[in-house]
């Protein structure tokens, strides 16, 4: 059976594209994200000029009932306070960020402790050693768990919000 012209080139180019995807499991780079979403990261926004990934980021979720992203995450973070969320089965997960650079994450009946670091924009931090949702976006009275640092600030959902203190009634 004879293949149509260009079939082999298509197969090779698709293989190369898939191979390139395997090299970057964390997603696209912050610079690539900024260029794709913000036209290179130039312009307004509330992030420092040195962080193109956070430039022109929205300051809140698409759902107006969710907490807005804090203007200054370093000031808004209530260090040492447990932020909690209620799971569909009625159990609770919690996340506490300590001033000494450590965190305690209680999730799915298991406790994980470790260290955290600020990302350059001062609105997010990274939980070192956490593989599922390691980025924490600071909001007013809440934290959002994000899959990676390339997730837009308005791409948050109720299942990713940890609220300071007791959970509000549903």
Automatic annotation (TrEMBL):
Question: In terms of domain of life, where is this protein from?
Answer: Bacteria
Segments of skewed composition (Low complexity): 48-59
User: What residue spans carry the region label Disordered?
Assistant: 22-73
Per UniProt, the keywords (alphabetical) are: Signal
Residue ranges, compositional bias (Gly residues): 38-47
Kindly indicate whether the keyword Signal belongs to this entry: yes
Reply yes or no: does the keyword Oxidoreductase apply. no
**Where would one find the signal peptide in this protein?**
1-19
Protein name (database record): Lipoprotein
Protein source organism: Pelagerythrobacter marinus
The organism's lineage is: Bacteria, Pseudomonadati, Pseudomonadota, Alphaproteobacteria, Sphingomonadales
């Amino acid at each position: 059976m004879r293949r149509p012209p260009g079939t082999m080139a298509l197969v090779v180019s698709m293989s190369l594209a898939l191979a390139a995807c395997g090299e970057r499991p964390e997603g696209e780079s912050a610079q690539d994200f900024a260029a794709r979403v913000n036209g290179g990261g130039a312009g307004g926004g509330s992030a420092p000029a040195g962080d193109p990934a956070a430039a022109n980021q929205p300051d809140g979720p698409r759902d107006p009932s969710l907490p807005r992203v804090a203007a200054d995450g370093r000031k808004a973070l209530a260090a040492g306070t447990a932020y909690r969320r209620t799971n569909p089965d009625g159990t609770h997960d919690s996340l506490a960020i300590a001033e000494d650079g450590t965190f305690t994450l209680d999730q799915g009946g298991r406790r994980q402790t470790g260290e955290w670091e600020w990302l350059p924009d001062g609105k997010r931090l990274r939980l070192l050693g956490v593989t599922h949702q390691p980025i924490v976006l600071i909001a007013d009275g809440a934290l959002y768990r994000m899959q990676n640092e390339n997730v837009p600030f308005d791409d948050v959902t109720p299942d990713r919000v940890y609220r300071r203190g007791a959970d509000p009634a549903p």
